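1st attempt posting a full record on here, be nice pls
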Amino acid sequence: MIKLENTPKALGITIKGDYDDLNELYDAVYQPADLYFTFIFSVLKEKYPSNSDMYDDLIGDYDYAHNCILGLCYDIRHAYQGDRDIEYIGEDKNKYYKVDVLYPWMIYYLLFFQRISQYNFDEDDFAALNYPYNNLEHQKNLSVLKHFSIQIWECLIKLLGKEKASRLYQLSTKKDDHILMEFSYVEAFCQYYCDANKKGKLIHKNMLLAFINECFHAKNDDYDEALNKIASRTQEPFLSIKQFGKDYNKLSKKVGTVYKEDFEKMIKNYGKVNWDSLKF
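the predicted structure (as tokens):
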């Protein structure tokens, strides 16, 4: 059985399970993601002219979002291949494979899982695409993702408290794809969030709470309280989506097309992180 738990410094969540557990989880992430984005791409092709700027922009964004989800598949696969960490559990010393995933990305994955579970696909949606859709297999994958998602919420309850986590859950049930398009913000926030590790759990716990509200575009009492606690303990401003957007636009005006090396240089302004030695 897949088990999730907060990492010691609460920077992320540890995913662990035996070989079969993680192999099943890999399929449960990969197959629905492939199905979802295949469907979305077909909708975009029908809605927009293939030579339009809108079509190119949306296809590019959704393609990048798909690659972000595949990033979780990559981590899971390398975990059950033994390339991450291994733990021996119980008297029988059962082998469990482990991988740590940063909280901002886990939130991104969680909201994607909840988004895809709201779609009611049927075979007719994929008949013209020559896509081998199997509803029974899809429902099986969704049940695995549901159990996985519930465990993420349980980790959030332990970290943030039941009341705050419950309010976040209510926000997460809204049908909206905007989180999928915030992948650049999520990546930048990871730099900012991990740098806050130096300031202790209280700081980055409130940063995470504010971040999740940012992902929902929700500004409420929990959000304001988190910002106040951050401001009282650090001189650095909180990295909001709005502030990130301003920084990105400024970079875009300066360099024109923003390439990977430009983006990576920009987000280093949000904090210094030694990824090779980072302790979760």
